[in-house]
Write the structure tokens for this entry.
Amino acid sequence: MVGAVFNDFSYSLFIVSVESDETSYFVIGSILYRTLGYILPEPKDSLVINSKILTVMVRPQPKLTDPVVVVLAPLLNGTTDPQCVTWDYGNIEPGEENWESEGCQTLPSPVHTKCLCNQISTFAVLAQKVKGPVMPPSGMPSVPLMVGSGVSCTALFIMLLIYAAFWRYIRSERSIILVNFCLSILASNMLILVGQSQTLSKGLCTMTAAFLHFFFLASFCWVLTEAWQSYLAVIGKMRSRLIRKRFLCLGWGLPALIVAVSVGFTRARGYGTSSYCWLSLEGGLLYAFVGPAAVIVLVNMLIGIVVFNKLMSRDGISDKSKKQRAGASLWSSCVVLPLLALTWMSAVLAITDRRSTLFQVLFAVFDSVLGFVIITVHCAMRRESDNTNDIPLSYPYTR
């Protein structure tokens, strides 16, 4: 009895429990053909080779008592009915009849395909081409997604133009936090639209899912950063470059760290499926987004309670302008955070279940309202722009 295990980013091979009467050792070799499937003739019945081709050799030839387990990752998204096959060496000329599915059991999943075969040979996975397009014929996202993202992006873009025009007068920590927050939402909306047309390209779909994961978390982190800034205002913390760098580390660095750990731990498996460019619902990868988002919401609530108590207490802030700015930041966080959570929750549901019009309409409504709420809270209701309570960053002062 012997066993062998090979692991790679795109395949796994397990050979266990073999018998031989002549020798007590075996020489095992494997060759992974990364592009051979592109030049071989296409199989019949609208099938495509949807994996890299793996050739396994064992010398001397053993007698298998258990199936050979081969795990292959898919190359193409948008295919159905995967089936494990082996190469028939009886046919001299390579053609569409060389692949045989007899003797192999297929155990599919959204991330990979597991094959249990009763012989050592050349392995691959064939899959059925999609008979009807998964997306609209034009390859464009659905109308509700385009409307919601378009309205939100337009509102945020207008607000960024206003801030750019008056940046000399309103430049402050809160303004910098807001600009970064808006950029994360703009990037998220664009990636939602782009991801709807990238499901057939596995590489682009994986990149889209990873960046969407990053910008979703970044938007939550920038709301938390604003709450942190309001907390520093009520405790009278001295403004410094170190604090501003910590804002950037929290807003962009923490999401990047979470995504990097998730990608490294899973080897990017689960980032993008054949149906959508988002985290796979299987394998627990979705918790890499839900978990940090839930923690951020909880911490934001705790900071909000502390700031509110500080503002309402008799021995709280005596400076009226500081109290006004801290209250404005607290109000912004309390209004924007629930709406942001509802927006991204409906976005995830709309991405993963594209057949449901309800989730797409909900996303369009929440996303549009989010854009208008941000521009209302930070432009129309921003008193600092009128009375210049926000002192430029070039003048350090105590908050």
Q: What stands out?
A: The chain has two domains: 3-128, 143-387. The chain is about 50% helix and 15% strand. Residues 132-138, 384-399 have pLDDT under 50 and may be disordered. Residues 3-128 form a domain with the Chondroitinase Ac; Chain A, domain 3 fold (CATH 2.60.220.50).
